[in-house]
Amino acid sequence: MHLRALLLGATFLSGMVATEAYAQSADVEEVVVTGYRRSLQQSTEAKREATIIQDSIFAEDIGKFPDTNLAESLNRVPGVQLSREVTGEGLQIAIRGLGTNFTKILLNGNQIAVASTGRLDSQSQNREVDLDMFPTELFSRLDVNKTPTASMLEGGVSGTVNMRSARPFDFNGRQLTYSLQGSTNTLSEEWGPRGSLLASDTFETGMGEFGVLIGLSAARTHMQTRGFESIGWSNANMSCAGCNLYGSNNFNWAGAVPAGVSRPGLTVGAPITNDTLLALNPGLTLQQLSDAMIPRLGRPHYAEGTRDRYSALVSFEFKPMENLNLYVDTLLGRGIRKFDRVDMNWVGRNSNFMVPTGLQVDENFVVTEGTFLNSQFFLEARPYHEKVNFFNLNPGFSYQFSDFIRLDGQFNMSKSQFLREAPTILINTPLGVGINVEYDNPGKPFPNMNTNADLNDPNLGWTWLGGGRVNIQNERRVTKTKAAHLDALFGQEDGVNVRAGVAWDQASRSIMALDNSARWQQAVCGGGGTFQPAPAPQPPCNGQAGSAVTNAQLGGYLRPGPAGFIAVDYDRFFGDTNYSEFSSTAPFSASSNTGARSGVIDERTRGAYVELNGRTDVGPWELRFNGGVRYVSTDQEITGPVTFTVGGVQTTEFQTRDSRYDAYLPSFNAVLQVRDDVNLRLSASRTLTRPNPADMLPGTTFSDPSAQEASQGNPNLTPFFSNNFDLGGEWYTGAEGYVGVVGFNKQITGWTQTGITTIPFAQLGIPFEALNATQQTAINNRGGPSAATVNVRQQINVGGVLTIRGYELNWVQPLTFVFEGIGFQANYTRIYQSASGPGAPAVAVGVSPYTYNVTGYYDRGPASLRVSYVYNARQIGSAGPENGVQIPVAGGAPIPARFYNDARGQWDLSASYEFENLPTSPRLTLDVINLTKEDQRTYFAWPNATQSYYEGSRTILVGIRGRF
Questions:
Q1: Is this structure's pTM higher than 0.85?
Q2: Beta-carbon neighbour count of residue 746 at 10 Å?
Q3: What is the CA 35 to chain-centroid distance, rounded?
Q4: How many CA atoms lie within 13 A of 948 on its CB side?
Q5: What is the 3-state secondary structure of 654-671?
Q6: CA 235, CA 245: separation in Å to the nearest integer?
Q7: Tens digits of per-residue pLDDT, 238-250?
Q8: How many angstroms from the chain centroid is the CA of residue 305?
């Protein structure tokens, strides 16, 4: 509230500045600004001239963007929220109250996709785009389009972001810039190199003007994260009147006193009754004991490794005639990520062996302290090796056929590949040896689980018994896009004109999980021998004789770890268990270790549009407008696996389903210039985002012996549609300064919920022979495959409407009347959400109800300094109910337990100084990201039930950049 009052009240100050600037403009010679102020001024001019509602960010100079990360730059735009990796690095963006998959990301006006899995432990199997693959040094402009035009590619209900790579005609003559930096952070404390080189030249040939630009960028980041994860919270399953109000019931207290428990009044083997539990936990009732919430798998988290990124941009432009411009852009990227992740899990989930003593709970039944006798821990060790490749080719032309006709054409193709190897080694502490946990939960940052066992001792007695396992679960992803666009403009660019065009776009995405866990596990800890695939029974992982690593040998593969608990000697373990051979021969699997489902989505879209652009006078005012309609027709081909057993042999086949939908997307934008320095804006439009691929993959399974109940994806889901209305205006106060306000309203349909559709068995796409004998008989008894119906449970479109309303305030102000070169920019975004009807989400997931950004800057001559603060209010992180927990409400419906993301603010600093008189005019640079080392934390339902916590790290980049 204080910031909003400041933004509104400060318009009086900006008015004083604007009046002074206007009065002096006739007497002061033009001042050419550079650096960050130049970037702000270009952004202000672009906003002022735009007919749509948009915000732009420009490079400060060739090869120099205002931030070290494209996502971080976008985070400073009003209405944009950033999704961060656990390391704190910006990754994906969301606009105006909707998730990241509702934002359309374009590269040079064309859709792209990056094959990746997003944040650690995420699936990212819909339409999200990771931005960490795109180095800032190779881009010249970012446009965040919050309202559409008919000529704009469809797909972004919340907005569209276009990333414009650098081209040679953007600059005058020959340019060569270099940048060298070293980066470190307060957790890893290791320095990593980062550098770029960008060369551009234009020259006359006998055939016309020609330009070439080549850019190279490389970076290595040493990363380390420390924190805590709970994998949810749960309570014990108890039999007593009025117990288990929360549900979940994910574990049991011990039914008898276990071996190793030494406590007065407890005898090994004696039954533990409800009366026993009350005696061990004085002051608590049985209901409190049954709903006492503890972490399902409370675990300290540690990860350490490197992230390498290599990128190259090659761009050619050729102007054989004054009215013809040809260009070809090629962008390549490669990412290599290697890191070791280890977690030491305190076992709550599915356990039945702990004895609670001295427990205390708060008013929500969250355990605040206590002792848990006969506890168990398991180590989960996972070395990650990820590779990402990206390639984009973008040829095009612009031809001014005559004074009134211009043709623009563009072809585009991209391909991205992702491969991840993340084997898992899981071993346990022994039970019945007196391992106890002293539990203390202060709330923030996370619970403490102190134990009398030395978890950093390789000779503690670690064992495969009791749930040990190993996994090989690799994942391959491939995304491809192709496009051909042709646009024609009839009329004058700056006057009245009609634009029309056609477009063909194709996008495909495949996910292939590869799993050789069962075969490797039998060799490692299952006794070896000849492997028999499912449905044959699999031997348990118990380290028996014949195993490559027996229980007796296990300690020899362990070593003390850097996080206070043991680690695995991977080189020796993988060598002795033939890991490389098992990994390279891993067979296809229906889903990956993150839960992402294997399958292929192929979309082919044909589009056409017509729009009218113009300028006219309305009395003393100038009106600029844009109105048109876009038609799109989309054909989808969805392929997914179906696994069944015939004659004792497990077989996987692939189902392919087709679907098609058409849409008309009208849009209208208008700007009324009521004064030379005041614009009023209005926009109305209809936009779409295509349905989530994860909900469309077939994946048919039966849940009953008569093949009458089935579950599968729904390839016939329709898109999300949004009817949008925006109203706003700006007051331009001089130079880069302006004050802006815009209100927006979106009504979104296309939501889904689980429904049941009845269809003949023959339409399922499942071979009749794939059914077992009982199911085949049942189908025949119901009339055979063509007549027998099946109730299919799947996601279906329903009529719910999600309404998002909000406003954005933006103020950019140079303070030249105080001191030349200083100024600030600030913005505030407020979002309200309401839902009606079935399917519409009741809460905004992953979206802060309000955010704000404040930046103060000084930029004059050789010196530049910028300090920024970004704040995101608390977010609801999931719709719930998580882990089956429902929170009772007296006289009302229970509230589903949800995850929440803590509010978070981050300070950043950027400073530089240029030595103009030295060769190459070197500029020393200092960037500090997350100055105050702000953490990332989420909690489960209640603020003192930490879901995850990742310690914040301050990143420092020191370097030099210059130009020839």
A1: yes
A2: 23
A3: 31
A4: 18
A5: EEEEEEEEEEEEEEEEEE
A6: 10
A7: 999 889 888 878 8
A8: 21
